Amino acid sequence: MASLPVVLTYAKRADEALDTPVNPSPDLAVTKDGHVATIELQRPPHNFFDAGLVRNIAAALEALDADDDCRAVVLAAQGKSFCAGADFARNPHVATLDESANPRDKHLYKEAMRIFRTAKPIIAAVHGAAIGGGLGLACAADFRVTCREAKFSANFTKLGLHPGFGLTEMLPTLVGVQRASLLLYSGRRIDGAQAVDWGLADVLAADGEVRSSALVLAHELAESAPLALQSTRQTLRRGLAERIEKATERESIEQDWLRRTEDFAEGIRAASARRSATFYGR
To answer: Which of 128, 219, 244, 265 could share a disulfide with 81, CB 3.0–4.6 Å?
Structure first.
């Protein structure tokens, strides 16, 4: 297997010592328990992402696709949040650009498309906040396990920005057009119980048991015949990656010009100061 920019190390049990890592990264770790792999985001407390982290997640999933012994994947995170999206306060361009990458490969959504094109079922263990692009990352999974204390928000318009990470396609698919419109227009937060009620999440677990409950579901999926499981998933998700690609093309165009507006600058200032923004439509 080619070297990957992630900690791709396996253990028979999650608590066993890991083997020698391949190209270790401080941002991501991969372990395996039987037929179930866990990818853990390691940027606590809020696991803010950039194109580099999304690239590493995609690379890990692609490597697990090539592992015939892996049948399901749990996507989990350290810290207080599953993923609070992009850290706009530190870098207003972080949602799309990775300055360390080849200019042809900088766009975060090009890396995100690799996640949508992978073959094995993914369960997102969503504790804490899944905000903005972090919600998009959670929605790229097949299932979401969460708790009442979790917070889900597509907060882009609160920042003066167009939604991204394929959420203009995924949210209507998951919760219907009306509820998706409400979430995307308002940027409101909903808790884990409401997320399950609306179909945005699938399993409501106790706080502190989100990851273990996600692993239970993953092991249940792994009991299915692997070829039949992947074939069924492929049928049910047929055309999804192509729809997401079209959505992200539109999203990125709209984000690019909105990022240059005064409203976006005000949205970032307000978010950093934890106050309500004053927008002027310019």
So the answer is: 128
